[in-house]
Amino acid sequence: MNDTGTSRGHAGFTGLLASAHTPFNAAGRLATNTIRAQYELFLESGVDGVFLCGTAGEGHSLSCGERRTVLDAWVSASEGQYPVIAHVGHASIRDAIRLAEHAAKAGAWAIAAMAPMASTDTFSTICAFSGTMKP
Asked: Does 3 reside within a domain?
């Protein structure tokens, strides 16, 4: 994100943005081999972009490594030609920053983040947290 509220020089997002579920196999491991089919279904259905690892995407229950893997699989499946928005919020500010840095390097179109859920911080410290999320 830059100071104008746009991402990587893109104008603001318009269209249908879908929150993708994170696929798992029967053993409870990530099933990233199914993400290309998920991406193709989104395209066929008129979905203009994807939001990853939010509530519907199980982001709160995934490790940071799993979240990076999901993002990488989506960027690869779409060959970088589809708006992929990565949720990078985390209870650990350091982990949130690392996820944001990875999203920028991986080619995410934008990031989204919530402040840590158990935060008792003031409004000004929440604003400072938000400022740390700029990759």
From this structure: no
Distance of CA 104 to the CA centre of its chain: 10
110-120 pLDDT per residue, tens = 999 886 665 55
The CATH number of residue 73's host domain is 3.20.20.70
pLDDT 10s digits, 16-50: 999 999 999 999 999 999 999 999 999 999 999 99
- Residue 127 in any domain: the answer is yes
Is the whole-model pTM more than 0.70?
yes
Number of domains in the chain: 1
The DSSP string of the chain is --TTS-STTPPPP-S-EEEPPPPB-TTSSB-GGGHHHHHHHHHHTT--EEEESSTTTTGGGS-HHHHHHHHHHHHHHTTT-S-EEEE---SSHHHHHHHHHHHHHHT-SEEE----TT----HHHHHHHHHHT--
